Amino acid sequence: MLSSKAAGQAARQTIRNRSSPSALRIATGTIATTSIVSATIYINTENGLGLKRELDFWSSVTPVVWDYWWNCFSSSPKVQLQKALLKINNHAVEQPPPSPQTEQDEKKKERQILLDQLHERNAPKIYNVMIQLGGLYIKLGQVLSVTALPIPEKYREYFRTLQSNVPNHEDWVTVVKPTLERELGAPLEDIFESINEIPCGAASIGQAHKATLRSDAGEEVIVKVQYPNAKWQVPADIECVGQFLQLCVWFGLVDESASKLSYEEFARQFLSELDYTNEMQNLKAVYESSLDPNAPYMRQRVVLPQVFEELCTDQVITMSYLPGRKFEEETKRQLSLLGIDTKKSFRSIVKESSGNVTNAEEGERKDEVAISSSSPSSQTLALSTKQPARMWKAKLTSIMRNVVSVDFLFSVVRFSRRIALLSQSATVKWIQLASSLSIVPVGWKTWADERQNDILQSMTLDWTEDAVHTLLDVHGYQILNQGLFSK
Q: Closest Cα to residue 196, out of 211, 179, 213, 206?
């Protein structure tokens, strides 16, 4: 009896032992499959795509951060070893120690050489990361190229190239057209008589296309469409920028309070640009304010685009087309007519002009000091006859210092340029008139033809002053009277 019972227990144990590995494999396989499916589903959600984009960013940037830390910062083992070896070498070699100031200058020079080498090596890498990731990183590079922050010049050189000739638009067939048809709820052929597949403008979160409405009036419009991925790309990119900025603060490269304020404004600005509904409402409000006959729009000949609300959604804004140059492009064109190098930033142009004025003022102050300090009692009689002349010169210098400013210099340059252009314009007109009578040499006629553009230039030199007055008048009315503002 006992032997039979023992045999049954042994049989059950054998079955249990045989079934346990099989059950474990099934459970392991189920967990693994569930994990893979869950990860696949998550990676295709907006949060998952954002995480993947952050990983792409850090996988490219981390080697650059490591390069700077390993070669430059005091906590690096390499830097600590170099300091220890230098200390041992100084003890071994008997020579008088340098003065503290000399030692400090040498260390500063060596560090700057090292930083220049690191910038030279890593600036192209950061530039390539911005190009590859696109979107907000392109915009960030454009901002950093003209910012007042102490950006290394090598980085600034690369970032300046992001101001133009950057491929920054989505494919029409696979991205833009399906997005427009989904948002507008109809085929584009039913809404538009024609639409240009090539964008007339592109930015970090969207692009714009010129089109003609299928209506009796056949209005020409601009259709602004937001990229489908912008909703998750922009927050992910802003998060990466914030983390990178914190890293720069930790390394002591930027000031914490200043960087925090800049980052908060940066994040607020770009997150607000995702809200096309709010932008459409702002455009509508500003347009309606321009219809007031008492507003400065008509007086200043300012026209604003009208919004077509029925063709606007969370990702699409349709507004009337207004042909013309961008304000920035026209400003640069006008400055170039004055002989100003517009390849530099506006900040650099004003800074250089202000520096010239400052240097002139410092020279005048030195002259005044020399005048006031050169009158000891032994020379009183000799200087008495020159004192009145020096007094009026000092007074004139003081007056000129108050008059001469950046604005004054620009005015003088603009006035001189205008006189020159008007003179050339009058000469060109006279030669052209006389050439019809065959009373001028052929060389004169050629010269006049080459300077035909001077006539047009002489008519536009007042544009700068008019533009500034218009901006102040219109935006002052919008902000102070209507509580509105359009960019």
A: 211
Angle between helices 153-160 and 100-133 (to 10 degrees): 20
Task: State which residues of the chain have pLDDT below 70.
Answer: 1-49, 90-99, 148-149, 164-168, 252-254, 337-415, 417-418, 421-422, 436-440, 447, 449-465, 484-487
Are 435 and 448 spatial neighbours (Cβ–Cβ below 8 Å)? yes
Rama region for 387: left / alpha / beta (φ>0; ψ in -120 to 50; rest): alpha
DSSP state of 97: P
| Residue 159 near residue 151 (C-beta atoms within 8 A) | yes
Tokens of 284: 């509508």
| DSSP state string for 155-209 | HHHHHHGGGSS------IIIIIHHHHHHHHTS-HHHHEEEE-SS-SEE-SSEEEE
The per-residue DSSP string of 449-470 comes to: HHTTHHHHHHTSTTHHHHHHHH
Strand partners, 319: 222, 307
State the alpha helices, DSSP H only, in 206-275. 230-250, 256-273
